[in-house]
């Protein structure tokens, strides 16, 4: 298993779904984990990690909030080694059905939050001699997927932001990679009938939904020293949708 012993890891949107699975796996592998979310259930997640866990209530689209996450993390653990920009929202709508509030909701959570996180964490990582940033994107940023205009647009933006950041930060010892989950069985998928779930499965060559634990294992590897020469990578985890 990839080695992250004693690394300090911040996972945003970690109260449920992929984020909770990522936080749990990091803790199991010996990392110190900062769980952030607007959902107070994140406190229960962090509490399971004992003294190696910390919960910070956090809106990723709030610049001052990022300053508070950095402050509390340094106060408790004295360093920051890994940032996983996992938080996001998904509310499907076509372009013509997307109003300004819906657009702003996606932009703030999915795109602005990633920018603010990379900027805040990188300042500290540079002082520490390096670090790792992993941006959780979507395979909607690799394909033309209709009906999710705002969501897909922000994920396409994160894809570009990740590449640019990887280039800017490489000489500073900071690796930046992005991952592209397909249809993962999390609360973000929403409440779907058996018929709809079967439809989703039929779209996937492996004929099943992905699990949060599978995504977490990929994130863990990219965060570890075993991935020390990987930066600017775009890694799909989608059961072969492509």
Please describe what this structure looks like:
The chain is an alpha/beta fold and 242 residues long. It has one domain (8-237): 3-Layer(aba) Sandwich (Rossmann fold). It is built from seven helices and seven strands. The protein has helices spanning 17-28, 41-47, 63-77, 100-128, 149-169, 194-203, 212-223; strands at residues 8-12, 32-37, 53-57, 82-85, 131-136, 174-181, 234-237. The chain has a seven-stranded parallel beta sheet with strand order 3-2-1-4-5-6-7, with helices on both faces. Helix 4 (100-128) links the parallel strand 4 and strand 5. The longest helix has 29 residues, at 100-128. The chain is globular. It starts with 7 loop residues before the first strand and ends in a 5-residue tail after the last strand. The model has no long low-confidence stretch (mean pLDDT 95).
Task: Return the CATH topology.
Answer: Rossmann fold
Cα distance, first to last residue? 26 Å
> Helices and strands: which structural class?
alpha/beta
Work out the helicity level: 40-55%
DSSP strand count? 7
- The CATH C-level name is Alpha Beta
How many domains would you count in the coordinates?
A: 1
What proportion strand? 15-25%
Name the helix and strand elements from N-terminus to C-terminus, one letter apiece. EHEHEHEHEHEHHE
Shape: globular
CATH arch. level architecture: 3-Layer(aba) Sandwich
Count of DSSP-assigned helices: 7
Mean pLDDT: 95
> What ranges have pLDDT less than 50 throughout 5 or more consecutive residues?
none
């Amino acid at each position: 298993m990839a080695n992250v012993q004693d690394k300090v890891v911040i996972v945003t949107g970690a109260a449920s779904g992929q984020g909770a699975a990522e936080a749990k796996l990091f803790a199991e592998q010996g990392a110190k984990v900062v769980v952030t979310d607007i959902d107070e259930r994140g406190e229960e997640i962090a509490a399971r990690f004992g003294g190696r866990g910390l919960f910070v209530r956090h809106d990723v689209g709030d610049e001052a909030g990022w300053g508070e996450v950095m402050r509390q993390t340094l106060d408790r653990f004295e360093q920051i080694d890994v940032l996983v920009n996992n938080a996001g929202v998904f509310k499907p709508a076509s372009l013509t059905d997307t109003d300004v509030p819906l657009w702003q909701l996606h932009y703030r959570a999915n795109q602005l939050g990633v920018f603010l996180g990379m900027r805040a964490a990188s300042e500290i990582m540079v002082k520490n001699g390096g670090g790792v940033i992993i941006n959780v994107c979507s395979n909607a940023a690799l394909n033309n997927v209709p009906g999710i205009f705002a969501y897909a647009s922000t994920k396409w933006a994160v894809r570009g932001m990740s590449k640019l950041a990887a280039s800017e930060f490489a000489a500073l010892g900071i690796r930046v990679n992005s991952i592209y989950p397909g249809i993962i069985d999390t609360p973000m998928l929403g409440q779907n009938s058996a018929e709809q779930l079967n439809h989703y499965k039929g779209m996937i060559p492996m004929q099943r939904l992905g699990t949060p634990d599978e995504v977490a294992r990929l994130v863990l590897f990219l965060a570890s020293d075993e991935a020390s020469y990987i930066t600017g990578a775009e890694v799909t985890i989608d059961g072969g949708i492509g």
